[in-house]
TrEMBL record:
Source taxon at top rank: Eukaryota
Chain ranges of the SARAH domain: 134-181
GO terms for biological process, alphabetical: signal transduction
SUPFAM superfamilies: Ubiquitin-like (SSF54236)
Species assigned in the record: Circaetus pectoralis
Official protein name in the record: RASF3 protein
Length: 185
């Protein structure tokens, strides 16, 4: 069970804590004066992969939206990547089933936490990159986009080599079969 404290102000706005699991597949770019990374992009930025199972606690208010939570998480850890690259998901457990659903930018995570209760088995939050089909390419830097193109070119060449080998083997078998049929008798 996950305990959290809710405090209500005179204006009806309440504050509390949420935990967000970071499930990021791609490396994040961090201000290198704040962290140590594996490969430097520039003078003050470093890229590295977050370890699996990384969970962060964030103190927010009932007025904070999903977009603001994503921005606050990235700011807390000095992440230089554009917040538009990321989405917040809620993970719900119902009758031995786990459902993961992307939250809209205008939803209020603390309200969802309050309604679900404090137990993370019932509701938890997950930060992920946008799904491939919904990537906002304008959120990536030029070097990142160029790197994606290099990777795509490499994958395309590998697939072409596989296809060429397959068709060459098929052609050899056809020519061998044709050679057997057309032997002069």
């Amino acid at each position: 069970s996950d305990t959290f404290l809710l405090l209500q102000n005179a204006n009806g706005i309440y504050t509390g804590f949420i935990k967000v699991q970071m499930e990021l597949c791609r490396p994040i770019t961090v201000q290198s004066s704040q962290s140590q990374g594996r490969c430097a992009y520039g003078n003050n930025e470093t890229a590295f992969y977050l370890p699996d199972g990384c969970v962060n606690t964030l103190h927010i208010s009932s007025t904070n939206t999903v977009r603001e939570v994503i921005e606050a998480l990235l700011k807390k850890f000095f992440v230089a990547d554009n917040p538009a690259k990321f989405a917040l998901y809620k993970r719900c457990h119902k009758e031995d089933q786990v459902y993961t659903c992307k939250l809209s930018d205008r939803e209020h995570p603390l309200y969802l936490r309050l309604v679900a209760g404090p137990r993370t088995e019932m509701l938890s939050f997950v930060l992920r990159e946008h799904e491939t089909g919904e990537v906002m390419w304008e959120a990536f830097s030029i070097p990142e986009l160029q790197n994606f193109l290099r990777i795509l070119d490499k994958e395309e060449n590998e697939q072409l080599q596989i296809l060429r080998k397959r068709y060459a083997a098929y052609r050899d078998k056809l020519e061998e079969a044709l050679g057997g049929v057309w032997k002069p008798g």
